[in-house]
Each structure stands twice: as C-alpha cells, then as structure tokens.
Design brief:
Radius of gyration of chain A: 18 Å
Strand content of chain A: 15-25%
Helix content of chain A: 25-40%
Oligomer: homooctamer
Number of helices of chain A: 10
Structural class of chain A: alpha/beta
Order of helices and strands of chain A: EEHEHEHEEEHEHHEHEHEHH
Distance between the termini of chain A: 28 Å
C-alpha cells in the first residue's frame, strides 16, 4: 500500500486497488493550488479525477493545466477524464423530492457518471402528490440501485422503498427552514423510515450516496461478467 | 367569568361558555383524591367529565362515587356522562400509521366521542405500503376533519394531506427507538411536511388533536344549523 | 390525476380537485426562470398563482410576462390573479404578538386573501400587557378561525386560546435571540400550550397556517351553502 | 473564613457570615449517614438546618438523633429548627400554574419559611383562564418578591410580570410530556419572556428561587430597619 | 396489491412481490395476541416469519400454536420457518467493534439467515487495536456486503471502509454512556465518516442493515443466475 | 389600563403605573420610522425613552426629531431624557468576566443609569485568576444587587455568589466558539450554579438583568423612604 | 502484535507493549462469564486486571476463581493483583467538587492505584466556597497531574487551573438535575474553560482521566530514571 | 499575586509564576487598540506575547509599535519574542487527519513553538487509508505528547491512541458539513473514544491542546533536569 506525501496531503495512490474507485478530492477548505497539486498526483496514477464541493476559483486554476477538465455548476464538481472509466451494465435511479433538492441530486449523478454508471434522473415526485411517484414505479424498478434525495420532512424514501426491491440510499438535504434544522429533520425522518432496508448518508452528501450505489452496481456488474466466481 | 378555588386547583367553571367545551382534567401528577374533587366541581356545572392520562388507581376512587364512570384502558381516559353532549353532524377520521400508535389514536377517539363527534377509525396504513392508504381515500374525504397519528419518521400526514381537502391535524407519537428521540423525529417530520396546511400538536397528544378537530366540527355543525348567521 | 413534467418540476395540475386550492410555488431555491415556467403551467389550469418566499429578482422576471402580478414586500410573496377566487363568507383573525412578527403575519394574510378569505389583522397584543388582548376579544370570536403569530417565548396562543371557541393555529417566529434558538423556544412553547386544541405549524410558516385556516373557512362556507349535505 | 473537613465533605461554616443564610444540604446522592454528619456540623454553628431533595430514608436516620426534625413530603425537604430564624417583614408570593407544579412550589415555600419569610401561596392560575390570575393581582403586588412556578410552555411568568412592579423569579418545572423535553420547553419560554426583568432558575429548582427571593426580602427588611445606612 | 385488515393491523400480503422479502413483524408495542394473529396471516401467504424486538412473553404464545418457532434470546427475534427461503450465493460479513455490541449484530445475523444469506461473524475488532482488524481483511473482502456494528465513537466503519471494495452498512449502537447520548455520538460519527460510501441505519437497527445487505446480496445472486438480463 | 394603537404596535402607556418603569423599545426588526413613532408616543406620556438593540440608522432618524437623544455605541442603545428619572439610593455592581463581554455589560449599565441607578463597573475578573476577583469583594458587597456577565463556561457567577449576600443576576454571553454553542454553555453553567440563589436571564440580555436589578434597587429605595409601610 | 480470540472478544495481549498499561475490561454489557474469561486471558499475560463499570454479580463469579480479587463498591471496579505494578514516583491529585461526585473520583483513584500511582484525594472544594480550594493549593501543586471531578456547572477545573502549573484533566459528572442534562452542562462548561490547557474526558469517565494522568506520571517517572534519554 | 487594571482588562502579571507560561491574549472581540495595550503590559513583565484568534487589522496596529512581531496567517496568531523562551527537550507531535484541519493544527504548532517546544508536523493520515498512519508510528512514539486534530467523525485519535504510550490530546475541528454540526460530531466521537486516556479540548481549540501538551513537556523537561526532586 502506497501514498504520495505532498506535505499538506498524503494522496492515497493505492485507493483504487483496495476500494474499486480512485481517491476523490474533497475541495472544501483547500486552496486552488492544493487542489491542483492533488489532481496532478492522482492523474499520474489514474485516468479520472473527481473534485467535490469545488469552487469556480479552484476550477479556474485546475483548468489552466488540464484543459479538458469540466466544471459542473449546479453539482459544484470538477471532473477530468483522460480516459473514461469503463461503462458498467445496470442503471442507477436518482430521484429527488423537489426542485430545490437538485444540486445534491446532481452531485450524485456526476459522481455516478464519472465512475461509469448510467443514471436515470427523476425529479419532483414528493409525497404530497403521490400519483407523480406511482407513474415512475417501473422506471425505478428497472435500476440496480435507487438514490432518493429529499429535504423538509424526508418522507420520500419511505414511500419509494415500499415500491421497489432494489437497494435504496436516502440523502437528506438542507432544503427547508425553521424546524428543518438545516436538514436534521429530514435526516431523522430517513433514519426512522418504516421502509425496511433504507440506508442513509450525511445531509447534502450526494457524493456518498453515489459512491455506495456505484459500489453496488460494480458488484452486480462483476457478477454478471464472472457468474461462476460468485456461485462458489 | 368564574372559577371554584379548591386550594390545589382553581376549576374554570366558565370554560364551556368561552370555549365551547367544558374543562378537562389532566390527571398526570394529581392524587386520586384531587381528581375526584375536581370531578365533583365540574359535574356541578356540566354534564360530562373527561380525565386524560389517568391511572387505574385514580379511576377506582372516582368510580366509588360516580358509579357510571368508565375507564378506557388503552386510551388511559376516565369519562363520566350524566347526560351525553348532543351529537354533532359530521365525522372525524382518526388514522394511525401502525398498531403501536393505537393508544394515542384511542385518546383522540375517546375525546372526540365524549364531545359528541362520530369517529372513523382507520388503522395501520403507513406509507411503506401506500396501497393500503389509497384504499381508504374516500372514507377520509367524507369526514369534516382528519387526525393522523404516526411515530417513527412521521411521514403519513404528508401523504394523507395530498389526498384530501379537509383540515388535517398530525399527532407525532413516541413510537420508535434510537434516532426517533422519543418522538422528536416524527414531530419534526410533521412540522416540515410538504403537505400544505398540516398542523401539529405535541408528541402523544391525542387529546389536543381531538379538541382541535372537535372545535372545527362544532363550527361546521353550527354553520349548517344557522347558515344565515354565517353568511353575514 | 395528472401533472405536467417540466424536467426540474412536476406541476400537480390536479391539486385543486383533490385539495380545494391550486398548487402554490415555494420559490426558495428556484431560479427566476423556473418560477416563471411553473407560473405558466399553473395559469393554464387555474386563475390564480401564489409564490411564497419569493425574491424581488424572481418577481421581476415573472412581472415581465404577467403584467398584473404583484409583489408583497413584507410578506415576500408573488401573486397573480387572472380571475380572483370567489369570496368565502367568514373572516380569519391574524394576530401577532409584536411588531417584529409582522412579515410572518403578512405571509399568512396574503395567502388567506388570494384564497378568498377576509382577514382581521390585530397587531402587538403580547401577554406582557394583557389588557391589549382583552380589548380585542370580541373581534377575535367573530372570526371562523384564529392565527396567532409570536416569537420569543410564544406565550400568546395559550392566552388567546383561553378566550375563544374558534380553531386556533399558532405560528412560532424566529424573532428573538440567544435561547430563542431561532424560534425553537416559541415552537416548543406552543406545542406545550396549556390552551386545549392549539395546533402548530413550522417556525415562520405563515403560509401553512393560512392554508389550514382557509381549509376550515372553506369547509364552514360550504356547510352554510349546502347545509343539507352536511346534515346527512 | 473557615470550614470543617469531614473527608467526604467540607462544611462551609462561614457561609452565613458571607451570604446571610447558613449552608443548605443538597441531599441527592448522599448516604443517610453523610446527611446526618453534615447536619451535626451545621447545628454546631447555626440554629437551623435545611436539607433539600431528601428521601424518607435520610430523614429517618436524621430524626433518630434530632427528634424535632420535620419531613415535608411534597417538598422533599428535611428541616430542623433549634431556634427559628427571625421573621422578616414583607411577604413572598409563590404562584403556580397548575396542580402538578405543587412539589416545586412547596420546596420554595419551605425554604422561604425556614429563612424567616412569610409566604402567600397561590395555586392553579395558568394563562388558559386568565381571569383566575387577574383575580389575585393585588395579592401579588402586596409582596416584596414573586416566585412563579410553571411547567409545559412556561407562559405564566410573562403574564404575571406584566401585572406587577415587584422582582419576579421564574421556576420552570418538568411537568409535561413529549416536546416539553423534561422542562426545557418551559425553561426556554421563561428565558425568552417578553416580560422585562423576569429572571430564571434551573428546572424544578424551587429552592434556588426561594433563596434569591429571601435575599431580596432580607435586603428590603434591613433597609426598613436601617434606612439611614441605605441612604448614604 | 392486496392486504388483510385485522382491525389493529393491515398485513401487507403483497410485500414479497414488490420488495423481494415478506413482511416482518416489529413486535415492540404489540400484545402477544396481536403478534400471533399477524403470524397467522403472514404464514397463510409465506413460508417464513421474522419478528424483531420480541419478548419472551410474545414468543410463548406464538410457540403454543407454531411449535417449531424459535426464540433468539440475544437478538430478541422470533423466527418460524415452514419452508426455509432458498440459499443465496455470496456471504455477508457482520463485524462488531466490541462484545457489548453483540445483541445488535445478532439481530442482523438472524435476519440475514432467515432471508437465505450466509453470515461471517467477526467480533471485537475495534480501532484501539487496529491489528485485530487487519487480520481479518481478506475475510471481509470475500463477502458481498459488510455490516459494521459499533457504539461509543463509531469509528470502526471508517477504518473498515478503507480496506474493502464491498458495500458497507454501518449500524450505530446505544453502547456507551455520558456523551454517547444513547448512540447519537456513534450515529453522527458514521454519518460523517471519511470512508467514502458508508451508509448508515438507525441506532441499534441490526434488522435494517441486514435487510439492506440482503437486498444487495439477492441482486448479486440474481445477476449471477441471469447475467444476460443484467447486460441489457 | 390604556394603550395607543399605531397599527404596527400597541404602545403600553400604562406600563409605568403597573411595573414601575416605562415601556422600553426592542428595536431589532423595526424600521427606523417605527422606532421614531413609538418614541413619540412614549414621550407624550413619559420623560425618558430607552431603545435597545438599536442600529445607528434607527438612531439617525430619531435624532433628527429628538436632538438630545444619545447613541451608546458599544451597548447598542438609544436614550432620550427629557427629564431624568429620580436617582435611587443604592448602587448596582456590573461585573464582567472578560473584555469581550463588555457590550452586554454596557447594555446593562446604560439601562440601569436611565432608570436612576448608580453603577459600579468591574471588568475582567474571570476565575482563571481568582485573585482579581477577591480584590473587589468589598466593592461588590457594598451594592444592592450584582449583575455578573460571562461567556465561555460561565463560571464567574458561582464564584461571586459565594462571596456576597446580595441578589445576584447572571447574564450568559455568546462570547466563545465551538462547544460554547453561541452562549448555551454559559447559560447552562449559570442555571446549574452551585452558588445558591443565582438567577439567570437570556444570553446577551444585559437589559433584562438590569431591569431586574433596578426593580430590586427601587424596592430597597422605597423601603428606606417609607420604612413604616414595609413593616406592616 | 497479537491477540486472543474468544469468539465474543479479541483480547489485545499486546496492549501493554504498545501503550504502557495492560488492557482493561469495560464490564458494562458483558455477562459474568464473559468477564471471567477475559480475566483469565489477561492474567496469562499480565499480573494485574482492572474491570470498570462492574456489577457485584460479575465480581462474584470472578472471585470464585480468583480469590484475591477485590470489589470497590463506590468505584464499581474489580481489581486483581497477582503481582502489583511497580510504584511510580510522583503523585496525582484527585479533586472533587461535591460529595455526590465521589463515585467518579473513586473510579479514577482505583485506576491510578492499580497502575502504580500515589493518589491525593481532596473532596468538596466547590467554587461556592472558594476558601476551601485556596487551602489546598500547595497540596495540588505538589502533584504531577491533577484530576478535577465536578458536576452541575463544572466550574471547578477553571478555578483549579488558575492555581497550578501541572497538567489538569477535567471529568464532568452526571450529578445535577434539570438543565444539567445528565452532565452535558458540566461537560460544556469544562470544554469552554477559560483556564488554559484544561483537557476533558467523557461524563463520569473517571477511568479515562486516570489513564491519561497515569500516562503523564509514567512519562515523568521514566524521565527521572533515564534523564539522558530524554535530553537527546 | 498581582495584576494591572486597564479598565477594560485586568492583565494577570502573576500568571507565569503560578502556571509556568505567561498570559496569552484571546484577541477575538477585542479592538486593535485593546490588543496593543495588553501587549504592552505583558511585555513589561515577560519576554514573549502570543495572541490567538487575531485578525490582520489587530496585527497591523501591534506591528507599528513592535516591529519584530509576526503574523501567522493560517494559524491566525500574533507572536512577539523579545527574548525567546528556553527550548525544552522533548518533541510534541501535531497530527492532522486532513488538509482542511491545517489552520487548527497550525494554531497548536505556533503555540507550542513560542513556549519552547519542538514540533513534529504530520498531515493527512486519516483512518480511511490506515497505512498512511502506520507509516509514522515510530515518529509519533518518539515524542513526549501527541496532539491529534480531526474533523468530520473524529476517529483518528482512537486509532493513534492504540499505537502509542504517550499522552494524547484530541482536538475536534469544525471541518465537515450537515450532521457534523459544526464540529459537534467530531467532539462527541473523541469524548467517546475507545482509546483509553484520550483527553479532549474544545472544537478548533488548537491553542488549548498545545498549552496542555506544553505543560506535560515542561514537566518532563524539569524531571530530566532535576530527577532527584521528582524521586522524593
């Protein structure tokens, strides 16, 4: 197991071997120069880079050196793809309860896509108009995993869980005011979901949900490629 | 405006004039004898008594003097009806998400009934099996107000609100564990409901929700009796 | 049941049928263009639009297309009335404890008015000078529902509840500092109100309280129009 | 300044000199024998002993040695008066919102009385029936300080504060359930009181409120005895 | 979609069709008779029953009718297997940080086993002796999903996540005291895990983690059986 | 009892009769014009005005009409004295733990002075250097009441309480960071003070503490003037 | 690095090599038999065993096999010393604020003693009588480290810190009621201490504080034995 | 014991005698001029000054008078060294979990250095790549004390504690989002650390951890100089 020590950071160049996906840069609290330097080290060892919680200022510096890097405004992500990761069979549904939850859903979608997943985006199907959700039931069930993004009371994952047999990861968002307590209400709601098997990530953590879903999709993908290995 | 001073309590004998319903006894923290004495004062001025959060011990003493008093085990209520209050037209739906929420739902139902309301009890229609809720949609809409009792993530009121045009009062319960925080998760969920117009009462406060629903039903009842007064 | 899918939003065009009032736009976190597009879809199906938590920037874009739209500064609301909703008989009281609670009270009043309700505004009757409240007692009782808006300790709903027989909806506000915890103190106070039947909405949620009150007023209004239907 | 070291406790025998009242025993978490030993040391230096949060078991042991000791059941206090403290001129009002708040109010009353104060007990004047409070307004104003004990939403101190010119000390109680959070709701309510000058003590801390009120009453008492000293 | 209405419960007999696993009984707050009745309805439609948070008293009644039912003491589960569910290929690791976390780990293991999964139990590998964890690294990586159960600071999932490429579900437990806040500290720790892709369930919710892991394992199992379907 | 209704405010012109001091303006959340209008009404009935939590902008407008009004920068207060209130005999100590607590201490001092009290300012005597506090012990004891202002852990009131026989009002401040939780740590510390009789006001509420202290000082002052009345 | 796998526990037999002290048994949540088995494994490798949070029932079983084991009632500890650890030069002060804090202080003292430290016990020197603390100032300074145990407002560590140059570890206790929130108030107070360099452990964690103090004392002890090694 | 009273501050000129290190200026909330004046008083008595939480504006004024003062940008510290404090033998490790924790780690390092300690900086060794930590194990063990700085879940101190025999002080940081609650998650994690003997300071309090570590290092340093004194 190896790493590169930059003084301010020890880049884990062994990450992909151990975990299946390369190290990702959490850009918050880093200077543009620090982000750039970490990009360089990762790209010496991998073909793609993902930076989350990035600012336009960080992107500008990165782009000067890596011309083909992209900034995903709503998702606040930087991506660089020297050579895209291989496409996985199987899709991931990214569902969000309301329009205001889109930035978090987009962070999830961008993460999924750079890791080789196909994404089904389904927006604004909150429980206050349950017929909107029932209309997309088959679309959801056709995916290998489901990410449900919701703020306020965070009730959507429970309703979705009741309609699908696929692994479901709930992402509370900080959308709301007053007693939403910056997303705590949605988080608690999801943790107490009556829908069996709902798992939860941190508030606004679209990246984490995507990472978990990609791990599942990759596992299924490998199983379909090497079914014999799995059967043992 | 008048009251009777018992030393340990000042019974508000004017309550029904001002509020439409007589004073109710919150039995928690009172001795059986104190409950009995308050019953006496209320019955000198009114025909019915309701005691909530009552114990069997308090009931035993009350029953010795008021033979026709009743104890509602699951609802933890004492009721005495010398002369029942007049029946109101219009029904109230009392819906609960799961079997464990029944005690709170029953407190609401007993309160509604002693105040002259007809109750539609609908049990175990949580969002994890949304078809169970859709099956009772018309039954709900036929009522003048809807009380929704739910613990855990408290998602049911949002789903019900999306299906009805009637006033909806949500009651969080302390059913759950861990991050349910004794009902706080359900309470926050309901306060942040994406279903417009959902109002909320304290955790496990079946009585309060019933009182509010009864107030609405009484108002509608009076309107149907005296439509001209309302039209002004 | 139907909806229109705009990609970023699924507008619930069936809302008025199910709930009595058309869908309302929660403008926070939406771009001006998104608000405008939703306005268009709603106005194809309804005669009025209400946007809450709106900014002047969102309004400017909307106004360019809908000349007769209005911006309610203090209430932070956009309204468009192609054809006003029919006036309901019966008034709603909107009471606030202090001058600083006015923005929330105004959000309630604007919501009530666009939904066809008459509003009685009563301002600055906090419990520290209880004679100010006693002076408006009859004015309150003459309404079909009462909204009480208060920050700090949120004591006013308890005092008002003791004086009226009408349904009372309490709105905690984020007015205060320190241990007011952004309105949590007022919220907890109202949830624990000793005034029977007080129901509560989220902090600063003037809209939600108004929606609930409008639902009640509409129910009473319909009862006075069609008393026979209610009597069954 | 001096103290007596018992190993498990250092009894502050100088307390009365510095603070005006002798040391008081907080009995919770102490063995009966420890309580007894501290009683002995205090009585060697003072004429009265007060033990709060006491159990009957602690009292039994104490009484075996100090025959004239008393146990105040509801207040959970032990008192021993070898020679009562001199009576202070001026009364203290102890007001409580509901019957369930009586144990805390009694702890305050017992404390006040052993320190030489006259107590006006006023019970069950909660804001849900404000006429009950208005009826005792003059009785309150005739005192030198006012203690207001309330659970649930803790609104009573604000209402009382608006009616009197005397120092007011609010005591939140743990009476309530659910969102009362063991008295936190009442505590926050009182800290955010719109009634200017309301000061607050810990939940259920009747003793602390009484100590503060006694300090005020003693100061006034001394002022009436030695007005010249004060005028300087 | 169908259900059976028992009055106190609406048993969701369609659950296995929609979700892949039959309905499970959350026994807390139900009477033994209610548990028995629900068992009967489920067994009319399915071959296995799982009851979680069960008491010995509930089990005794169930066992009277279903002789081959089992009670799992530490896991607090009732199981009945008329015909075991088919075994899934692939294993699930259930890791716990300390001995005191065993009841929650066992709830997970019992749930996994009745749903047809093989379980690798790994106990007491907390981060304070990291060599204990490194010793089981390959054992973990050989599974299809990993459940990590930990109380106190909840640090174990982060360390495990860094060592495996498999989906990881973290279960905080209420083991600890003081600032562990009944498991909240562990819950927050896991939600903020620096290990990408860690998902979390409610405190002490071994069942929920197992359900999620079983869903993943079933998906992989189906993929290995029908790889062509997945490749589309 | 009377008031003046300005629409946005009902000024309590009877306040001084009932409470001993005239109404005070809480300027936060009011427009400069609203502050000015309230000033006008108060000055028609009283000789002094105090506005707390005021901005320079509010002051500028007020000063245009009331030339002799003053702005107290650090205390954020506006004062107008047409005719100063009569000086009370007796002093109030205002003690603060650190330099950063000065704004709150100044709010207290300005309030005390406009209400006719003499103030002893004592700054930076935190418990980390207890000799600084012991040096001012007599200065404190010479006052009629003591206000102790402290942030961070809020330990100072306990130490001061142990050294004086005078009523002590503790003011927690929001000075601190991290686990000070915006003053909650100091607030909790003061509420749990082992110093008997410490009473507490809201975080940063220098005004409230001063009001309470002024009430006490006024009471003592009146007692020295009319000792006979008190003796009854 | 090695361990012994008992199935339910992996005993870290390498702990003393790495950390200086052998593994300690946290007995809470373990069966008596599990405690016994772990004792056996530890004693095969070490000469002493410490079990914290132990019950008498656990002790009874342990004592049956290890006759010379001891139970420390107040400290809730089991100790077995086959061969006592070597005495360290240097003392540790264990100070507690009040009598009720003794169990936590004793847990610290028992831990220190089995690890070879001399303990200075100083009890009941709370800040409400600061002269009691000043009297032991030199006794404190003569130690190599200071443990300060306090509940309620947790102010004592700040005061002690101001008087000594030695490392100070603060232990909040759950002593108190109401707003002490089970020790959270004391914990927050200590974390916000104005006394520079105060470090804190979990509520009631006497063991943890003792372990830290023993680590310091051992370091100093080794320095005095091998000063040359340190000087490098 | 002595101090200098500046009116707004009482500078504790006796601090170094009592505590081993001179008084430090907490600059937050002080005006530049106040900082300057305190610097002057300290430098009359000591040779070094440390100001924490300083702004560039405060530094500019200080630098005008003290030309050789330095501003440590990332650490937000002002230092002035007229004559550096004597170097202590022994090093302190300052370890941080991620790049974003650097400002807090730097505050610790600057504090340590001005107090005469040598610092080993080790950055970005979070538990998600545990091999990065194992690589520096001996470097850590060679120090006299270890400071571990981490945000998010705060798991690093537990892992480090398991690998070293030296005193360990954990510093939670406010790095993170959502359920990190501004550092509370990390704080709780560290307080509940399964690593025995971990002590904790306030969120972001690099200074406090450094002060504690310096106290330990000074003690060891003195022990190596005067081993005989310690042996007594």
């Amino acid at each position: 197991m190896s790493f590169v020590d930059l003084g301010f950071a020890r880049v884990d160049t062994d990450r992909k071997n151990r975990r299946g996906f390369p190290e990702v840069i959490f850009c918050a609290g880093k200077t543009p120069d620090e982000v750039l330097q970490i990009c360089r080290v990762i790209l010496e060892n991998q073909d793609v880079v993902l930076g989350t919680r990035a600012t336009r200022e960080q992107f500008s510096l990165v782009q000067r050196e890596f011309k083909h890097s992209k900034f995903h405004e709503r998702a606040r992500c930087i991506t660089i793809e020297n050579d895209p990761m291989p496409k996985l069979s199987g899709k991931i549904a990214v569902i969000c309860a309301g329009t205001s939850d889109l930035p978090v859903a987009e962070e999830a979608a961008v993460t999924l896509e750079i890791f080789g997943n196909c994404v089904e985006r389904i927006c604004d199907v909150g429980v206050a108009g349950i017929h909107r959700l029932l209309a997309v039931r088959e679309q959801i069930e056709s995916c290998n995993a489901v990410i449900v993004v919701a703020g306020m009371e965070g009730a959507l994952p429970s309703a979705v869980a009741g309609l699908t047999s696929k692994p479901l990861i709930a992402v509370p968002t900080s959308v709301g005011y007053g007693a939403s307590l910056g997303g705590i209400a949605a988080l608690l709601g999801m943790l107490n979901s009556c829908g069996s098997g709902v798992t939860v990530v941190n508030i606004d953590n679209g990246f984490g949900a995507a990472y978990a879903a990609a791990t599942i999709n990759r596992l299924v993908h490998l199983a379909t490629r090497e079914p014999e290995a799995q059967k043992k």
